[in-house]
């Protein structure tokens, strides 16, 4: 008979959760035991009571009991009315056999198992008690006198069999519950991983947007602002001083060329155009100082100075960040400081690199943690600088006072030459 214990959940609501391998083996063992005991009981009867009038009935009932037992798998495993009716007929045929031939009482143990598997707990225990009573009565009929062992042994065997089956059933329920909890935990883990991945994608998108905004502010936006100022100056002096107006226009044209180069660089790989031309950060800073001096037409002189020697070429991210900071700082000097001189100082200190940008302009009073704003659409320069330095683990300090100029210092730590990761990231 097919065994499906484990195919129902703990509440018995019929939810299929998969067969239990241990229960399947137990079912096969019980089925084999039933037919073995049935055959042994029939053989014993035929050997001890040959030729009796009840022999045909015993044989017919034995065959009927075997056929009924084989019909179990056809009826399914759920306690349906048809299944309960089958169990009732099976037990009734067995009882008739026990009344006619007490030796068939040994088939009760497999029937215990069948009843416990199909019926609700209370009904199953009542059936076990009934079958046990029939077994005791059959044993007493076979005995020549009263034997306490025949009265006590069958209930003990029934109790042990029932306890073993109930224990196995509870173990199966616990295993199913544990498997269900594990599936829930795995589902929660997968859902959490998906949510984390989505969060990381969103954060990456926001970081990239912030980076692009800083790149555009430090290059295209500053260049367009300079062009606007130069063209406005050219318009004001177009008739009074055509030569100066033309100079302004030529300077604006040079700035437009630089902006075009930066825009193309954005499209290519977002690296600063000055760095892409070769020569590293030092050459880019000297070129930036010369360009700012030329564009100011004598109103501002920018000098660049380098101190120390790096152990190895600076990482691309550090070079790009420092160049952008220099560009943004000089744009602020040009537009807000009214300075006549400014300086770029790049200092290599072994484990860190420091860029100082100073001017002799009118200065201002820095507000701790709050960058100065100058208009509805301005004020992105200092926050962008702070963000760039913070991303590289560095610091940005500003020293300024009204009438005493401004010094902006950006320090970025570097991996020491003794660290293997430094050689990995900066091969020589």
TrEMBL record:
All copies of domain Histidine kinase, residue ranges: 322-416
Catalytic function, reaction form: ATP + protein L-histidine = ADP + protein N-phospho-L-histidine
Keyword ATP-binding set for record: no
Record key words, sorted: 4Fe-4S, Cytoplasm, Iron, Iron-sulfur, Kinase, Membrane, Metal-binding, Transferase, Transmembrane, Transmembrane helix, Two-component regulatory system
Keyword Cytoplasm tagged: yes
EC number: 2.7.13.3
Record GO cellular component, one term: membrane
GO molecular function per UniProt: 4 iron, 4 sulfur cluster binding; metal ion binding; phosphorelay sensor kinase activity; protein dimerization activity
Residue stretches spanning the membrane: 25-43, 55-72, 84-112, 124-144, 150-168
Localization, UniProt: Cytoplasm
Cofactor (UniProt): [4Fe-4S] cluster
Start-end of Polar residues biased regions: 415-428
Region (Disordered): 409-428
Superkingdom, natural source: Bacteria
General function of this protein: Member of the two-component regulatory system NreB/NreC involved in the control of dissimilatory nitrate/nitrite reduction in response to oxygen. NreB functions as a direct oxygen sensor histidine kinase which is autophosphorylated, in the absence of oxygen, probably at the conserved histidine residue, and transfers its phosphate group probably to a conserved aspartate residue of NreC. NreB/NreC activates the expression of the nitrate (narGHJI) and nitrite (nir) reductase operons, as well as the putative nitrate transporter gene narT.
UniProt protein name: Oxygen sensor histidine kinase NreB
Species whose genome carries this gene: Streptomyces nanshensis
């Amino acid at each position: 008979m097919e065994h499906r214990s484990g195919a129902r959940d703990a509440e018995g609501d019929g939810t299929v959760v998969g067969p239990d391998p241990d229960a399947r083996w137990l079912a096969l063992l019980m089925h084999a035991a039933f037919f073995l005991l049935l055959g042994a009981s029939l053989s014993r009867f035929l050997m001890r009571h040959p030729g009796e009038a009840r022999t045909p009935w015993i044989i017919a009932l034995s065959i009927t009991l075997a056929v009924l037992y084989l019909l179990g798998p056809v009826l399914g495993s759920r306690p349906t009315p048809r299944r309960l009716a089958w169990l009732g007929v099976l037990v009734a045929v067995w009882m008739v056999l026990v009344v006619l031939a007490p030796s068939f009482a040994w088939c009760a143990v497999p029937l215990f198992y069948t009843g416990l598997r199909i019926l609700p707990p209370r009904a199953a225990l009542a059936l076990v008690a009934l079958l046990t009573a029939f077994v005791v009565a059959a044993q007493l009929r076979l005995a020549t006198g009263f034997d306490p062992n025949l009265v006590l042994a069958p209930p003990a065997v029934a109790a042990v069999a029932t306890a073993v089956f109930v224990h196995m059933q509870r173990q199966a329920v616990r295993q199913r519950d544990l498997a269900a909890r594990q599936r829930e935990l795995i589902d929660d883990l997968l859902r959490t991983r998906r949510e984390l991945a989505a969060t990381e994608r969103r954060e990456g998108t926001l970081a990239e947007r912030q980076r692009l905004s800083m790149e555009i502010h430090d290059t295209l936006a500053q260049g367009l602002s300079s062009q606007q100022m130069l063209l406005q100056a050219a318009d004001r002096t177009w008739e009074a001083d055509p030569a100066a107006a033309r100079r302004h226009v030529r300077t604006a044209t040079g700035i437009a060329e630089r902006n075009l180069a930066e825009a193309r660089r954005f499209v290519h790989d977002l690296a600063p155009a000055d760095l892409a031309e070769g020569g590293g950060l030092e050459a880019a800073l000297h070129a930036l100082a010369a360009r700012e001096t030329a564009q100011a037409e004598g109103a501002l002189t920018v000098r660049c100075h380098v101190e120390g020697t790096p152990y190895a070429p600076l990482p691309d991210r550090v070079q790009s960040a420092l160049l952008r900071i220099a560009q943004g700082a000089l744009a602020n000097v040009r537009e807000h400081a009214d300075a006549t001189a400014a300086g770029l100082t790049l200092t290599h200190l072994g484990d860190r690199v420091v860029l100082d940008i100073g001017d002799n302009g009118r200065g201002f009073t820095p507000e701790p943690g709050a960058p100065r704003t100058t208009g509805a659409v301005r004020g992105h320069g200092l926050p962008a600088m702070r963000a760039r330095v913070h991303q590289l683990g560095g610091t940005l300090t500003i020293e300024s006072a009204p009438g005493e100029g401004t010094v902006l210092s950006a320090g970025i730590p570097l991996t020491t030459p003794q660290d293997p990761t430094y050689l990995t990231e900066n091969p020589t």
